[in-house]
Sequence to fold (69 residues):
Amino acid sequence: MNKILCSTHEAACRLSIGRTKLFALLRDGEIKAVRLGTKTMIPASALEAFAATLPEREASCTSRCAAKG
Fold:
């Protein structure tokens, strides 16, 4: 089953970017996020919408990201 919401770490891995870049995209409003208490969560649909605006490229999660789960 696919997750509806991703943590910032998971979102960065899914986009193959660092967390600093992810937070810059959030700050600039290019990706929408929601707050659940103190946790920032990113809807999978927001990641897909952002990725659809990018030129095509192969994205893969590094082993470092996969290890942190």
The chain has a mean pLDDT of 86.
